[in-house]
Amino acid sequence: MASQLLNVTRTLSKLSLNTKCRLGNTLIKLEQELAPQPLFSNPSRNTNFFNKLPAHDLWKGITSVSNAGKKRGRGKTVSKKNIKDLNRGQIIGVGKANIVWPGLTAPIIRGKEIVEQQQLPEDPERQKKLDALRDQMGTHRYAKLSPIERGWSGAKMPGRSIGPPDPIGEEVFTGFDSKVIELKTVFNMKGNFGRKRRVSATVVTGNQNGVAGFANGKGQEPKTALRKAKNRSGQKLMHIKIFRNHTVYHDFFTQFGATKIFVQQKPEGYGLVCHRAIKTICEVVGIKDLHAKVEGSTSVTHVMKAFFLGLIRQKSHEEIAESKGLHLVEFCKENGYFPTVLASPAKCRSPDEIKNDEILDFTQYCYDGRVVLKKKKHPPFYTKHKSYEIYLKKQEKLRNKEEVKMNLIAQYGEIRSFLTEKYPECRPYKEPKKEQAEEDSNT
């Protein structure tokens, strides 16, 4: 035995270092294979990419966008709404095979008895309930909005209603409604925090009866900014004059910064033909008929401030009559231009007291001598073609033919000319009535 061990040691000493390492590794592997295996294997060997990362990181890899991509406008549709919790509605031990697991889904001991593992009947509506839960997740908010509740463009906040301001003590804003005019993100560069992001909101509040106000609010989140702006606008209310509960008292010109607005009074039923910000303000104030032309800058905040300035500076008919010292008379097309006296001064001026250079035109007086810019209408392109001249020559004999026919029928009851009395047989043929035709056939 000793001689055999000597021979083994001599042969091992003659082997190289690499051979010794290989021989040692094989011996270690044999020892591991012959050793008793544990009850549970190492879970790290049987894992893949989907088991290593949690659901939050997996969704982030699909839906997230880098900061550089966000600055370039990418990933606008990416949000937390698109992330679905696929474990929602699932309970441990309840599935296709409902089994009671003592110690996991049920207690081990119930009273004095030991709970045994048993199978329960299947729930046929389980999959339908899971599908209904998952369909509710990730839906867009504007899908639930009706077309009336939507804003200027889809589900964006500008133009949408956010309800009345919050009550202040015992004061409750009954009958008030608030609408968003602008919602934007503002960045401010700080020395210690860097680019600081905030949200700015502009809101208009009114009771649709001549009381309205506007304010601006800022916050870290859109909800905070909107709430601040809504409550501040409720504290800055102002009274606005409305003529006959549907339009402004008179035409007026207003300006704020580079924004100029020409507003015209319109009859009932005309509607709101104006900028969308002005339309939103009119809905809150209670104005139903209006025409407004915006010139210059169309910044939403400037348009809002300019329009509010014009509404506040309106003069009543009595004030206009007193300032001019003349009667204010209305000539309305709806009344057949019948003169209606709207206001009279305490002392009316005589024609001798009126100066020659005084502005007496009501529209020019309201616009402070300004004139609305009207673009020149160019003739259509086809009027320059020779074919259009030929068309006019052919249609000259038929020009106003239908109108002349209608006028003759209205005046004489038939189509006739100045020669009809001399030649009565020259009348257009009329089909006889049925009764007269039957009498003629009988005779």
How would you describe this structure to a colleague?
The chain is α+β, with helices and mostly antiparallel strands. Among the domains are: 98-138, no CATH class; 252-366, Ribosomal Protein S5, domain 2, CATH 3.30.230; 388-443, no CATH class. The protein is built from 14 helices and 14 strands. It has helices spanning 2-14, 17-34, 49-52, 55-63, 67-71, 126-136, 222-234, 276-285, 300-312, 317-324, 362-366, 386-395, 401-412, 434-442, and strands at 99-100, 109-110, 113-114, 118-119, 177-190, 194-206, 211-219, 238-239, 252-256, 259-265, 272-273, 290-296, 328-331, 339-343. The strands form five sheets. The chain has a four-stranded antiparallel sheet. A hairpin with a 2-residue loop joins strand 9 and strand 10. The chain is extended. One of its GO terms (molecular function) is structural constituent of ribosome. Component of the mitochondrial ribosome small subunit (28S) which comprises a 12S rRNA and about 30 distinct proteins. InterPro entries: Ribosomal_Su5_D2-typ_SF, Ribosomal_uS5, Ribosomal_uS5_C, Ribosomal_uS5_N, Ribosomal_uS5m_N, Ribsml_uS5_D2-typ_fold_subgr.
